[in-house]
């Protein structure tokens, strides 16, 4: 077995298991000497080993092959030494599993053959059961065995973001058809989102039940809404999705892009950790969210294209700010961009790992 850590799961004596990892501890607001670090989209096109493995295999097919899922998920853990693995899949995998005809088009994203826009269309969104995604359970189990003490993060798309793909039929800048449905037929909107919340919650639960140590709910596009609309149209459904794993004692991370105005509302729907994009500083985000939640973030993924000295200064600032929050998980403010030099990601990980050996610099010394 090619375990990626020194600890073999066989001699895992529960003092060093994934549940005691820096990630889970930071999420529980028991911060260690340094923040844990992982990157959204750490598995993917920035890695040459990913590109060569995926050659000729469509994205959705690769998500259904536990051997490939396991290998792709492990690649960034081996290469960068990140403190968590994120399960290789996609937010639309559970939609495909319940029979929605869709494809993930390279360079575009998810494209839905027949968008969902009318009440009759809801019949196509049947409930998700773990039996419909056996390849997920199998891959999570294989990964947990391989990862040893490194935690695996499961994930799902949140109802709003899933609804946007289904209603628009593909990626959208303005979400106009989604908003037309939401504002124009509130009852249909809520019925749609209730179904999506079940699917999203069941997908999270499948991964947590199979051994994932934490989960992340991606509401990538919900920053398109003002707070009042978030609370009325979205919050009940994201609460339902996160509630599906409430009894499993896995920390829940809730992330969106452009959500500065929504952070307290996103915290309130049932997450231990709130993901922060790069538009709001961690200190300000934590002030908005309050002392009961840890934060995750928030290096701008585009900043990784700057010279190392500039990146290093930003990483140090984020870590220093994170030390003043109840708990901090280091991440980017959104996913790794495909053209990112993977060497820069490794250097960020190395720097953060070294920080536990340095005396802690007070933020006031840096004029923050
Ligand atoms: O490393 C990881 O973070 C785990 C894997 C992961 C993928 N998608 C793999 C993927 C995760 C967590 C996702 C979530 C996802 N998928 C989100 C939420 C995260 C975010 O970025 O906001 C969203 C909005 C999607 C929908 C989606 N799927 C998009 C926008 C794309 C990119 C389209 C493109 O080609 O630019 C996909 C495809 C996708 N999902 C890829 C990967 C690695 C690229 C597929 C490829 O390699 O050809």
Describe, in plain words, how this protein is organized in 3D.
The chain is globular and about 60 Å long. Helix 10 (227-243) links the parallel strand 5 (214-218) and strand 6. The protein has one domain (5-358): Alpha-Beta Barrel (TIM Barrel). It is built from 14 helices and 9 strands. Helix content is 42%, strand content 11%. Residues 5-14 and 362-368 have low confidence and may be disordered. Strands 1-4-5-6-7-8-9 form a 7-stranded parallel beta sheet. The protein is of the alpha/beta class and 368 residues long. Coproporphyrinogen III is lined by residues 40-45, 54, 59, 86, 88, 90-91, 104, 106-110, 155, 218, 220, 335. The site of coproporphyrinogen III (CP3) has 22 residues, from strand 3.
Provide a brief overview of the structure.
By secondary structure, this protein is α/β, with parallel strands linked by helices. The chain is built from 14 helices and nine strands.
The ligands bound in this entry are: coproporphyrinogen III
Low-confidence stretches: 5-14, 362-368
Could you report the average pLDDT, rounded to the nearest whole number? 94
Total individual domains: 1
Q: Sum up the overall morphology in one term.
A: globular
Tally of extended strands? 9
Strand order of the largest sheet: 1-4-5-6-7-8-9
Task: Summarize the topology.
Layout: H1 22-27, H2 48-54, H3 59-63, H4 66-80, E1 85-86, H5 93-97, E2 102-105, E3 109-112, H6 134-147, E4 152-157, H7 159-168, H8 176-184, H9 186-210, E5 214-218, H10 227-243, E6 252-255, H11 263-268, E7 273-275, H12 282-289, E8 294-299, H13 308-322, E9 328-332, H14 342-355
Parallel strand pairs: 1-4, 4-5, 5-6, 6-7, 7-8, 8-9
Antiparallel strand pairs: 2-3
Helix pairs in contact: 4-6, 6-9, 7-8, 7-9, 8-9, 9-10, 13-14
């Amino acid at each position: 077995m090619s375990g990626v850590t020194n600890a073999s799961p066989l001699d895992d004596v529960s003092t060093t298991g994934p549940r005691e990892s820096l990630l889970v501890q930071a999420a529980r607001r028991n911060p260690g000497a340094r923040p844990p670090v992982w990157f959204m989209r750490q598995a993917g096109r920035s890695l040459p080993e990913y590109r060569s493995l995926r050659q000729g295999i469509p994205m959705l097919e690769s998500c259904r092959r536990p051997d490939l899922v396991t290998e792709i998920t492990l690649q960034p853990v081996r290469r960068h030494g990140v403190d968590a693995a994120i399960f290789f899949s996609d937010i639309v995998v559970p939609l495909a599993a319940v029979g929605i005809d869709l494809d993930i088009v390279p360079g575009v994203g998810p494209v839905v053959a027949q968008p969902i826009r009318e009440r009759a269309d809801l019949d196509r969104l049947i409930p998700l059961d773990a039996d419909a995604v056996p390849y997920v359970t199998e891959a999570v189990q294989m990964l947990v065995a391989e990862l040893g003490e490194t935690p695996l993060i499961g994930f799902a798309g949140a109802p709003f973001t899933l609804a946007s793909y289904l209603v628009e039929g593909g990626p959208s800048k303005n979400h106009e058809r989604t908003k037309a449905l939401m504002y124009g037929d509130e009852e249909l909107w809520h019925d749609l989102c209730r179904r999506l919340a079940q699917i999203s919650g069941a997908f999270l639960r499948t991964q947590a039940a199979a051994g994932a140590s934490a989960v992340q709910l991606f509401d990538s596009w919900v920053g398109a809404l003002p707070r009042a609309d978030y609370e009325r149209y979205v919050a009940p459904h994201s609460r339902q999705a996160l509630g599906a794993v409430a009894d499993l004692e896995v920390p829940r991370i809730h992330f969106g892009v452009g959500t500065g105005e929504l952070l307290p509302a996103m915290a309130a729907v049932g997450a231990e950790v709130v993901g922060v994009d790069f538009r709001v500083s961690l200190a300000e985000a934590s002030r908005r969210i309050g002392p009961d939640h840890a934060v995750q973030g928030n290096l701008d993924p585009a900043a990784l294209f700057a010279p190392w000295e500039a990146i290093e200064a930003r990483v140090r600032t984020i870590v220093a700010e994170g030390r003043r929050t109840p708990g901090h998980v280091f991440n980017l403010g959104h996913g790794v961009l495909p053209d990112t030099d993977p060497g820069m990601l490794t250097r960020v990980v190395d720097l953060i790992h070294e920080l536990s050996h340095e005396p802690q610099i007070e933020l006031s010394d840096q004029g923050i």
